[in-house]
Every structure is written in structure tokens, then in C-alpha cells.
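Worked example 3 (structure in, sequence out).
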């Protein structure tokens, strides 16, 4: 075999012991380290009661599908009571279920079904902000400035507007993530200014999402209660929304920050990735460690990749943080290789396990992203959405081919793979949703100039011929006709389908995953990346468009899976690797 270029070593994951295996869900404290986690966006997954909105009984009803897919855990985006100003990330009550999505009993039934199928459950915790319908925020609005009720959020006096109103301008220039400013002024209900415009409250996201004041002990305590509430109900892990945003520098005068990007990530940013956020998560780890096995957690922290990101993932904090680097990278050998190498090295050094993700409910689906002309930017994606997908014309066959190759590259790596519902069907972004169906606050807060994220949230197609492709009632976002052939039932058992490729990969991945390490192997072509796991499994990806020479010594008799074209068999040696070559934009898996 070709010479070793570099090695990353990590922690061995202990397997189940004989006594562990008595139940389908053996109490392995390390289950999350190399788990395949499937993200369910509940409103769009499966609608059991026919009201057009996916629900928890819909998830329960699809448990066989999830089990056949071969995932280890599901992560549920918020299913809590919510006005859906931001798709459920505006939470009214952290310890309940939105009646449109079911009840706590439905949650328990879903959790029991998942656990019986050997599937663990991760729920989303949204600690940066509540909804404006949360009882604490309603109490804050009903109370006077300076009251204890206001202290759980960030209420401040405004600045003079020079036109006679001493508080007519917002307290700072901070923008909101979804467009517009991050402050909204209230009409006071109590106190000397009752009936008049008064203080401003902070919302880094939509107006309906007031930010909590994490210096307040009741806020801290209440989230511990929420963690225990769901942990006691059998939840196995938590995904922490905007984890890097909780600790803020609110000392007056507030510092100017006209853009939300972290320009210098050294802890000095007033809003994100401040050092004192870690004390919050150390407290959470103590709560999570009250359970045996300890509950898992993963931080959503969009911070640059330095050792600062890894702090969230330390064993003394959450255990994992999302690495969005591959998601943001072009489909290219050098980028993929160096990102994977860096993530693995840093994870091993910090005691975390790495995470990988290509798609989620916030980004354009990766089968579409990879179909753009090379060099396209986020702005190009936004312009394409605004043009209803009319320009540029995407090369969808290429996008799907690359997406499949990227997925197999990623599923072979040590660490956890986070998959987004529908990617196993090779779904593309729905770019031409009618504007009157759009629901993302981005669309409204940018004055209809940025469409936002609805195109990756369209309810799933389950069968080609049933009404609404078997989703349930009239979907809350309309499904395009091209969903039909991509429906799960249409791909079930179809050789070469994306669904069958995911199933085969996830089944084989259970053999492939071993010690959290890999060896990068030399390859004769710059476009080809080749690695080997300690147990001998090999993964080879050709990122180039043209066929390339395979590394010497590769024994194609060991080929067990190829990402090859949808018209060729996914399993076994198809036309993807013959006569010492590997087809363009293809990944091969070789067994030991
Ligand atoms: C990140 C979530 O993934 C996104 O959907 C949401 O809009 C923001 N956080 C605000 O909660």
C-alpha cells in the first residue's frame, strides 16, 4: 500500500459488553461519538393527522423507515408551542409540545418507539431567546421599566434622536440576523410612561424572539429545569441553538457592531463567543452528568475554526460542536482533505469527537449547492432563489453526483455525521416556492429581498402517487411535481437510488467505524483523496470531473460501495472503478 502521509489518532470507542446488549439500546456512554444522526424538521417530516403540518405521531409512524435507514439517533428541531415566527425557534413553553404537533403523550410514544428500534433522541434547546409569547416576556411587557420581570431579558432606554425624543433611537446599531435592527421599542403598559413609547428590547433574530439575559440566575436555573425535564423523559441528547450567543457584553455605552460577523475571534466581540459563555455550559454538563449514561450535547456555534470553537465541545462542556466547514467548502479535494484533517486533529486534542454536516434546515440543500457553477458564493445562491431558480441554470445531475460522493467521503470519517431529512432522497432545494407561501422571517425582515430557508423545508415526498406524495394533508409549503420520482417509495429497493446508497452506507458504516482515527494515503492524482481506517476500510474520492488514476495497490475486488451515477449500481463494482481508474466526482468504499 502507498506510504502514509499523516495519521490522526483519537479515542477508542468501547463497544457494548454482553450485558449491555440485553436491550436494543445498550447504555453506551460513548454512543454519540461516531453516531449517524438524522435531523427531523417535525413540521415537514410526516403528517399523521392530515392538517398539513408534520407531527410527532407522524415521526412514530415512520420509525420503520428510520430504522431501515440505519441511523443511530434522530435530532428533532423544535416541536414546542410556538407562533412559528421562526419555524419553532421562537419557543413559548420549553417543556411542552405544540398541540398542532401532538402532546407530551405523543412525545413519550415516539421516544418509546425510537428506543425500541435502537434509535436515540436528541432535542433542540433554544436558550438565546424565547418567543414574545413566553410567559416571562408577557410579564416583562406588562411590567414597568426597571422591574424584576424585565430583568430576565435585555430592556434598555433608547438614545436621543435629536428630534426631542430622548429614547427615540435604539440603544445600539446592532443588526438582526434576519434583516433590520436588533431592537424593538415597546409601548409601556405600566409605570410613569404607561401608554407611551418607552424602552427597547434586544432580539438578535426576529422581533418575536427576545434575547434572554443570561446574567440572571432565574434564566440559568430555568434551563437546567428544562434539560432535566426532557432528560427525565428519556431524551438522550441536546442540540444547543446559538450556543455562542448567550453571554453578551451589555455594559454601557453599548459598543458599535453594525455587522453580525465575528471579525476578531478573541473573546472581545460584544455578542458572540465570549469567554464567560463557557461557565454556563460547564453548569449544563453537571446537569447532563446527573444521568447514567450522561446525556450528550452538541453546540450550534458559528464561530471561526480556532481552538475557541473546540471549547464548546470539551468533555467538561457539551462534548461536540457542529463543524460547518465542509458545508461551507467548495467540492474540492484540497479543501475537503485539509478540513477533515484539521477537524479530526483538533477534536482528538480536545477530547471531543468531530462532527460533519452538509445540509440542515438553514442552508440550501447540498445537492443544489454543488450544482452551481464553481466559484459561486452565498450571494449567488440568494440571487438564484430570488429568481425562482431561473438563473443560473443548475447542473442538477452533477450536483447530485457530487452530493453522493461527498456523503460517502463524510460517512467514512471518524466522528458523528449529521444528516438532514430528505438528503437521503437526493432532494434538491425548492427554489420556486410562490412568494405568498414563504414563511421564513428573513423574507419579511429584508423587505422581500432575501427569500430565506423555506426551500429546504418543503414537506417530504413519501410516495409518488398519493396526494401530497403521501406526506398527509395539504402541506404548509407546496411540493413541486419533481418530488414524485424522488419519493421514498419510488427509491425503495431501486438499485442505485440515493436512498439505497444511504442505506447501504449506513449499514456498512457500523462495520467501518472503529477507533476514531484514520490514515491519509498518498494518491497519484491531486483530485483524488484516499484514507484508511485502522480496521482496514478504505475510502477513495475523486473530486475532479474527469476519471482519474486509482492509487496503486487498490484492490477493486474489495469494492463494496460506490457513490456512482444513479443509473449505475450503488453497491458492488459498477462502471465507476475499472481498469485502475475512478470515475469523476465519485467515492468508493473498500472493505478490509
Ligand atoms: C439557528 C437555527 O438553526 C435557526 O433555524 C434559527 O432561525 C436560529 N438559530 C434562531 O433560533
Amino acid at each position: 500500500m502507498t506510504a502514509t502521509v499523516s495519521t490522526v489518532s483519537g479515542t477508542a470507542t468501547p463497544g457494548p459488553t454482553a450485558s449491555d446488549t440485553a436491550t436494543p439500546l445498550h447504555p453506551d456512554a460513548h454512543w454519540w461519538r461516531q453516531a449517524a444522526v438524522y435531523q427531523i424538521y417535525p413540521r415537514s417530516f410526516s403528517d399523521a393527522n392530515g392538517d398539513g403540518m408534520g407531527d410527532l405521531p407522524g415521526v412514530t409512524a415512520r420509525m420503520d423507515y428510520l430504522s431501515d435507514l440505519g441511523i443511530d439517533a434522530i435530532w428533532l428541531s423544535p416541536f414546542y408551542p410556538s407562533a412559528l415566527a421562526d419555524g419553532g425557534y421562537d419557543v413559548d413553553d420549553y417543556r411542552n409540545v405544540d398541540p398542532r404537533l401532538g402532546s407530551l403523550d405523543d412525545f413519550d410514544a415516539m421516544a418509546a418507539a425510537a428506543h425500541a428500534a435502537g434509535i436515540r433522541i436528541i432535542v433542540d434547546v433554544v436558550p438565546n431567546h424565547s418567543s414574545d409569547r413566553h410567559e416571562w416576556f408577557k410579564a416583562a411587557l406588562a411590567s414597568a421599566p426597571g422591574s424584576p420581570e424585565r430583568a430576565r431579558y435585555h430592556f434598555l432606554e433608547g438614545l436621543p434622536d435629536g428630534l426631542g425624543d430622548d429614547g427615540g433611537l435604539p440603544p445600539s446599531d446592532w443588526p438582526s440576523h434576519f434583516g433590520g435592527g436588533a431592537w424593538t421599542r415597546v409601548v409601556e403598559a405600566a409605570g410613569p410612561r404607561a401608554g407611551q413609547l418607552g424602552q427597547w428590547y434586544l432580539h438578535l433574530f426576529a422581533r418575536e424572539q427576545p434575547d434572554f439575559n443570561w446574567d440572571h440566575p432565574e434564566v440559568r436555573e430555568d434551563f437546567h429545569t428544562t434539560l432535566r425535564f426532557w432528560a427525565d423523559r428519556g431524551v438522550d441528547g441536546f442540540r444547543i441553538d446559538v450556543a455562542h450567543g448567550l453571554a453578551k457584553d451589555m455594559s454601557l455605552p453599548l459598543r458599535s457592531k453594525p455587522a453580525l460577523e465575528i471579525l476578531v475571534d478573541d473573546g472581545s466581540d460584544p455578542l458572540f463567543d465570549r469567554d464567560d459563555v463557557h461557565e454556563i455550559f460547564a453548569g449544563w454538563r453537571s446537569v447532563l452528568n446527573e444521568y447514567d449514561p450522561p446525556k450528550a450535547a452538541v453546540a450550534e456555534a458559528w464561530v471561526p475554526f480556532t481552538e475557541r470553537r473546540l471549547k464548546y465541545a470539551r468533555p467538561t462542556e457539551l462534548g461536540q460542536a457542529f463543524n460547518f466547514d465542509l458545508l461551507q467548502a467548495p467540492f474540492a479535494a484540497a479543501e475537503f482533505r485539509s478540513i477533515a484533517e484539521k477537524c479530526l486533529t483538533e477534536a482528538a486534542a480536545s477530547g471531543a469527537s468531530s462532527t460533519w454536516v452538509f445540509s440542515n434546515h438553514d442552508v440550501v440543500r447540498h445537492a443544489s449547492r454543488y450544482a452551481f457553477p464553481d466559484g459561486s458564493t452565498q450571494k449567488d445562491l440568494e440571487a438564484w432563489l430570488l429568481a425562482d431558480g431561473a438563473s443560473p441554470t443548475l447542473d442538477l445531475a452533477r450536483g447530485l453526483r457530487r452530493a453522493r460522493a461527498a456523503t460517502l467521503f463524510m460517512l467514512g470519517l471518524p466522528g458523528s455525521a449529521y444528516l438532514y431529512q430528505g438528503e437521503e432522497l437526493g432532494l434538491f432545494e425548492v427554489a420556486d416556492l410562490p412568494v405568498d407561501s414563504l414563511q421564513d422571517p428573513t423574507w419579511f425582515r429584508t423587505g422581500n429581498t432575501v427569500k430565506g430557508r423555506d426551500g429546504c423545508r418543503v414537506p417530504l415526498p413519501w410516495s409518488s402517487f398519493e396526494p401530497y406524495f403521501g406526506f398527509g394533508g395539504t402541506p404548509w409549503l407546496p411540493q413541486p411535481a419533481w418530488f414524485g420520482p424522488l419519493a421514498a417509495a419510488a427509491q425503495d429497493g431501486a438499485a442505485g437510488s440515493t436512498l439505497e446508497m444511504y442505506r447501504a452506507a449506513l449499514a456498512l458504516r457500523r462495520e467501518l467505524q472503529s477507533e476514531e482515527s484514520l490514515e491519509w494515503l498518498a494518491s497519484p492524482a491531486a483530485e483524488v483523496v484516499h484514507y484508511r481506517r485502522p480496521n482496514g476500510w478504505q475510502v477513495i474520492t475523486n473530486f475532479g470531473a474527469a476519471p482519474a488514476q486509482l492509487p496503486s495497490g487498490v484492490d477493486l475486488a474489495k469494492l463494496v460501495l460506490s457513490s456512482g451515477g444513479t443509473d449505475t449500481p450503488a453497491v458492488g463494482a459498477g462502471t465507476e472503478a475499472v481498469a485502475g481508474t475512478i470515475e469523476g466526482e465519485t467515492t468508493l468504499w473498500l472493505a478490509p
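Notes: The chain has three domains: 3-127+219-244+287-500, 135-202, 515-590. Residues 135-202 form a domain with the Oligo-1,6-glucosidase; domain 2 fold (CATH 3.90.400.10).
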